[in-house]
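Our consortium's second objective concerns turning raw sequence data into structural hypotheses that experimental partners can test. To show how far this objective has progressed, the report includes one record in full. It was chosen at random from the queue rather than selected for favorable results. The single chain below, 398 residues long, was entered without modification.
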Amino acid sequence: MNRAEAQLVADAQGVRDEVGVLALHFGYANRFFPGTSVQQTRLRYALFVPWQLLALMRTPGLRPGQATEALRQAEMDLARRLPDVEGEGTIGRNTVKHDKPVSIPPSQSYWVALNQWGILSRVGDVVPGRRDILSSLHGWREAGTGRGELTDDEHRSLDPRPRLFHKDLPAPPSDFTRGKALDFALTDAEREFLGKRIEDVSREDKQPAFLSVLVQKEAVPTDGQQPWSTELRKLADKSDRAALKRARDAAALSALARGFYLACVEHLKDTRDKRSSSTLHRDLLPVLIDRYRDRALRLDLDAVAADGVAIGRLGSVLGAVQAWLRRGAFDPGDEKLRAVLAKWERDRKGDRRARLPLNAHAEAARRDWKGDKAGKAVPIGYRWDLVRRLLRDLHGVG
């Protein structure tokens, strides 16, 4: 699986996507915040992962075939040593209490950060994968000999092996491998290293990414600020300022697309299937329309591609949602929009999982659907809650 596919899978696990808007989320999140993933929690994990791999490299007698299990155990141990507090961001906090491995371990969810933030070194034009490293633990310069690195008279390494991590990677705490409690507070050296790495992150056009700019400007977002809030947007360059506005409008349109979908499923379950259903999503639809209609209609779908966000056929689906908004009836059973979304859903999910078509398979799919379990329609967030926390971690703000 390549990096983009792996990132898409990781994000899909954190975003409700009945309407297929994940492409919007993925595209804008990667433009603004390269290296992030919805499975990440705290910034110091970007150091914990390299430190754990370095510890494995230097474990006497550890053979390559044992490395994967050794890392799994190390990540379980790390989860036990970090704060056992809800909301603190300890990955695997609950699963390790039952002696089960972390389902999506930090070495998986943070690999994209290690890559895109330059913490991993390139070997030629290639960044090594997690599996490659575990299969050749002693093939890296950091594995060492236990006697320090051999250098020439100009202090250049004479070790022919490639370096795995950036040369300035801070050393772990002295008790990192000794089983003592750990936390997410960064030392000054760690903060300086991570800040420099993130400051070097760029967009596809080689200009600084918005995440990089936020770090350079030492921005610490408040709970109420969104990435397109005036105070933050003015820090961006001209290209990102325009893209942030489109991302805001796309988020509004995504909420209305999902809001209609959920309300329409409720409507069909009641009127076509003759099965009583909650009115939760139909009641919420007018609220969503009142809140997000203007921004959703403002979005220029053709301009989204210019932001580097590839949405393909989703563009025509979102255009149909905009047309429905312009018609002004706001009927959750609107046949024109239902037909467009039904075809889109069937193409994406297949006949047996799609809920909007007017056939027996869709009726069966609706039978098992519980509206109160589906979650309310909200705008996609582009990993902003995570980014806000990472920035706070960087600046030592609780």
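The partners drew two points from this record. The chain has two domains: 3-32+236-373, 45-149+158-200. The chain is about 50% helix and 0% strand. Both points have been shared with the crystallography group to help prioritize constructs.
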